Fold:
Amino acid sequence: QLQAYGGGLVQAGGSLRLSCAASGRTYSVSRMAWFRQASGKEREFVSSITWDGGVSDQSDSVNGRFTISRDKVKNTVGLQINSLKPEDTAVYYCAARKGTLARSSNPTSYDYWGQGTLVTVSS
Structure:
């Protein structure tokens, strides 16, 4: 089970930190990811990280403003978002992939999904 939280309303240029808590059968999870979906658009890959926190990647579209991290003690995955822009407004979802460490930006590659947390950036 994945629970995403930390979204909210923030002004452009501000920062926000999202978290995703994982529980249940996490022993099979190999990679965690964040996606986002703006109203009327397809779900978009943002960033991913291996379950051990060793390897991460991100979409070129976020231009290094996003940082993904893994807290093994709290069993969470975080997404630090800096220099927020109105176009970052979206529902942010965390997802988990099992069985393979391979990177993927395709939502269909992920086996478990959280409920999403809304990030709204005002101009």
User: Anything to note?
Assistant: The chain has a mean pLDDT of 92. The two ends are 34 Å apart (CA to CA).
